[in-house]
């Protein structure tokens, strides 16, 4: 079952049994006193085991008083000035325990060892990278369904892809001989000049060709054209590949979100990385 996105006052949350959590995606100005309690009520009424919140640092005090802890932080996420704090409150002991601490530490160390050692990937003559259009959503949904048995958002549904294209997402794709083989997206918060680099997927038979590096480079160029200041990603903590992609591209490790997201068939921890796009 797909988790639902809805508004509480002027803030935006996602909740449901798939991720077994409430995710406070956007905390509106003036909502920081009322919304945390409402979010906790929703979590307890539904028996969820985690509350995950992305909030401005100016609101952290009230969340900490309610038992939330900072798992990661991204300086300048809001307008290039205010830090974003990624907060977690665990409603079950099991959810709070990291099952693979040594493996995740190894991934982070390996990725950091490649920090800033950029890798340029040139496409072949029969390959091209472009922004996806409405006509692509059926093909895109098939790729996401094949790559991810589960995902925190319904990217396997063409209607969702179409709707988000009309809202705040730009999808990028690589085609080989006309066939779509790799995807990614920019989920933009234009109001606060930040973007999440997300939804990377490559068909299994086309992996190992460095498509993610090429996609990320293209995404960054587009975001700079739109005067977006800060980029970040929430990457699977046990994936050497995707963490290395961001580290090589000079993204800074910002923290790990423990047992945060239902992706590829189960709840996984996620690493946060960020980069200022206005600083070369």
TrEMBL record:
Domain of life: Archaea
Keyword list, A-Z: Transferase
Boundaries of every N-acetyltransferase domain copy: 127-280
SUPFAM superfamilies: Acyl-CoA N-acyltransferases (Nat)
Transmembrane segments: none
Record-level Gene Ontology MF annotations: N-acetyltransferase activity
Any Pfam family the entry gives: Acetyltransf_1
InterPro entries, A to Z: Acyl_CoA_acyltransferase, GNAT_AblB, GNAT_dom
PROSITE patterns registered for this protein in UniProt: GNAT
Protein name stated in the entry: Putative beta-lysine N-acetyltransferase
Organism per entry: Methanolobus profundi
Lineage of the species this protein comes from: Archaea, Methanobacteriati, Methanobacteriota, Stenosarchaea group, Methanomicrobia
């Amino acid at each position: 079952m797909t988790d639902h996105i809805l508004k509480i006052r002027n803030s935006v949350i996602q909740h449901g049994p798939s991720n077994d959590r409430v995710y406070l995606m956007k905390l509106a100005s003036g909502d920081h006193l009322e919304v945390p309690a409402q979010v906790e009520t929703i979590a307890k009424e539904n028996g969820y085991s985690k509350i995950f919140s992305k909030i401005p640092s100016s609101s952290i005090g009230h969340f900490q008083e309610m038992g939330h802890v900072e798992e990661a932080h991204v300086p300048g996420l809001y307008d290039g000035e205010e830090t974003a704090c990624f907060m977690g409150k665990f409603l079950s002991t099991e959810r709070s325990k990291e099952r693979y601490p040594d493996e995740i530490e190894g991934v982070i160390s390996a990725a950091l060892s490649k920090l800033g050692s950029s890798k340029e990937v040139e496409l072949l003559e029969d390959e091209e990278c472009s922004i996806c259009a409405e006509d692509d959503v059926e093909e895109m949904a098939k790729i996401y369904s094949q790559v991810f048995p589960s995902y925190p958002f319904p990217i396997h549904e063409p209607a969702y892809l179409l709707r988000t294209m009309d809202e705040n997402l730009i999808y990028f794709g690589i085609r080989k001989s006309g066939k779509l083989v790799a995807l990614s997206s920019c989920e933009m918060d234009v109001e606060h000049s930040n973007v999440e680099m997300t939804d990377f997927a490559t068909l299994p038979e086309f992996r190992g060709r460095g498509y993610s590096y090429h996609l990320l480079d293209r995404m960054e160029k587009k975001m700079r054209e739109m005067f977006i200041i800060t980029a970040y990603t929430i990457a699977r903590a046990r994936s050497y590949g995707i963490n290395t992609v961001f580290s090589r591209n000079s993204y800074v490790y910002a923290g790990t979100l423990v047992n945060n997201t239902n992706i590829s068939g189960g709840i996984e921890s996620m690493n946060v990385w960020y980069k200022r796009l206005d600083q070369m």
